[in-house]
Automatic annotation (TrEMBL):
This is Succinate-semialdehyde dehydrogenase/glutarate-semialdehyde dehydrogenase. Belongs to the aldehyde dehydrogenase family. One of its GO terms (molecular function) is succinate-semialdehyde dehydrogenase (NADP+) activity. Residues 1-21 are annotated as: Disordered. PANTHER family: SUCCINATE SEMIALDEHYDE DEHYDROGENASE [NAD(P)+] SAD. The keyword Oxidoreductase applies. Residues 12-466 form the Aldehyde dehydrogenase domain. Keywords: NADP, Oxidoreductase.
Length: 469
């Protein structure tokens, strides 16, 4: 395996509290020999997993879920310390992860059952079917914004399919990575079946090229996706890429405007606004624009920004100083080009933390960075649409295509917009949400492949065609 670019003794990985800007502790990075040991252990475990049945894997997965549920309070506190989301949302993240583990424990066998071909005699066979079998070791390159859930939505289906997993987590969430490193072994999975690599991004290309790695999945930036996708292409290996988005939230005249505005607040501000699937561009028909804008602005201004450990806090800090500065630069650029700030919420004074005020903008034109870039923080942009055609054009007018939301009570308009919106998902009269039951993923610069649902567990399987004379 090629890991020569990593120094023999890599610098430690820091846990920095985004609410204070202070380093809480440092974790030792894995050396190249340790990375090699973990890759070898995963490869050995994949051979063992391939020979186990679904019932055995399900028992291990359910036990792992029970352990995570028992550890929920401690895990939630670690999430808040590492990336700053409000404690209530951190607990929700853990609960969602537990539910997903149990979902795949209960459904994997059915999702991967043999699929017989009807009338096999048409292809000259007594029997013909497709069978799903694991690929081997899957490398996961994961982000910090949902440090447990993002990993579980890959790990639960991958392990239940009989694959082993290696996690290269974001460098600012090492405690989450180390917790997950031990979770599945504690639940009964073979040693090495799931392991974390505390290493820099410079090792990723070499690990993808390693013949013991069968596939790779990444959730992250467009740039990271291009790099990982290129490395997987060179190695001729399966890749699933989820690269974020700038999701439209479209409100038409027949919508329940009050409900749409209340949902818009949750859609944009959940997770401190740092969610790939969040509504980011709010496209409102001119007939209801002023009503929606007034309600939305009022709700944003009333948000409580502060200590993420406080149960009353709605918005905590941005996870990194770089992320906060990038968001500020995007908003400053928009204002410099004539955009108007309709509302902001007060942020804590005299703090070294990486807070940014929840902000609502209008008048953001094509010359602005926010018009074409994803805003990863509590910033919402309003657009006025004259009619349905202009609303659809604005919705589709970015290089992304992860998810979308449309609000209408007109059945024909609903049908037209479901067809017209270019995205991996359309939610009608509700916010975009990921569920273990629903396939999740995007098109265009939002990536390719699917997680979750039946499609998510099949991504890292060989669909083998079987023909029996």
């Amino acid at each position: 395996m090629t890991t020569a670019t990593q120094p023999p003794t890599a610098p430690p990985i820091a846990v920095t509290d985004p609410a204070t800007g202070q380093v809480v502790r440092k974790a030792a990075a894995h050396t190249p020999p340790e990375v090699e040991r973990r890759v070898r252990a995963a490869h050995d475990a994949a051979r063992v997993l391939r020979g186990t049945d679904f019932a055995t894997r399900a028992s291990w997965m359910r036990e792992s879920a029970a352990l995570l549920e028992a550890d929920a309070a401690d895990v939630a506190r670690a999430i808040v310390t590492e990336m700053g989301k409000p404690i209530r949302q951190a607990r929700d993240e853990v609960a969602k992860s537990v539910r997903t583990m149990r979902f795949y424990a209960g459904h994997a066998a059915a999702f991967l059952a043999d699929t017989p071909l009807e009338a096999p005699e048409r292809v000259g066979a007594r029997r013909a079917l497709t069978r799903y079998q694991p690929l081997g070791v899957v490398l996961a390159v994961m982000p910090w914004n949902y440090p447990i859930w993002q990993v579980i939505r890959f790990a639960a289906p991958a392990l239940m399919a009989g694959n082993a997993g290696l996690l290269k987590h974001a460098p600012n969430v090492p405690d989450s990575a180390l917790y997950l490193d031990s979770l599945f072994a504690r639940g009964g999975f073979p040693a090495g079946a799931f392991g974390a690599l505390l290493a820099g991004s410079d090792v990723v290309e070499g690990i993808i090229a390693d013949p013991r790695i069968a596939a790779v999945t990444l959730t992250g930036s467009e740039g990271a996706g291009r790099a990982v996708g290129a490395a997987a292409g060179r190695a001729i290996k399966k890749a699933v890429l989820e690269l974020g988005g700038s999701d439209p939230f479209v409100v038409m005249p027949s919508a329940d405007v009050g409900k749409a505005a209340a949902t818009a607040l949750a859609a944009r501000m959940n997770n401190n606004g740092q969610s790939c699937i969040a509504g980011k561009r709010f496209i409102v028909h001119t007939d209801v624009y002023d009503e929606f804008a007034g309600l939305f602005a009022e709700k944003i201004a009333a948000l409580t920004v502060g200590d993420p450990f406080d149960e009353a806090t709605d918005i905590g800090p941005i996870a990194t100083a770089r992320g906060r500065d990038e968001l500020a630069a995007q908003v400053d650029d928009a204002v410099a080009h004539g955009a108007r700030v309709l509302a902001t919420a007060a942020t804590p004074a005299d703090t070294a933390g990486w807070y940014y005020p929840p902000t609502l903008l209008e008048g953001v034109g094509p010359e602005c960075r926010l018009f074409r870039e994803e805003a990863f923080g509590p910033v919402a942009v309003l657009y006025r649409a004259r009619d349905e055609q202009e609303a659809v054009a604005l919705a589709n007018g970015t290089p992304y295509g992860l998810s979308s939301s449309v609000w209408t009570s007109d059945p024909e308009q609903e049908r037209r917009m479901i067809d017209a919106l270019e995205a991996g998902a359309v939610f009608v009269n509700g916010m975009s949400v990921s569920y273990p039951e629903l396939p999740f993923g995007g098109i265009r610069n939002s990536g390719y492949g699917r997680e979750l649902g039946p499609a998510g567990i099949r991504e890292f399987c060989n669909m083998k065609t079987v023909w029996i004379a």
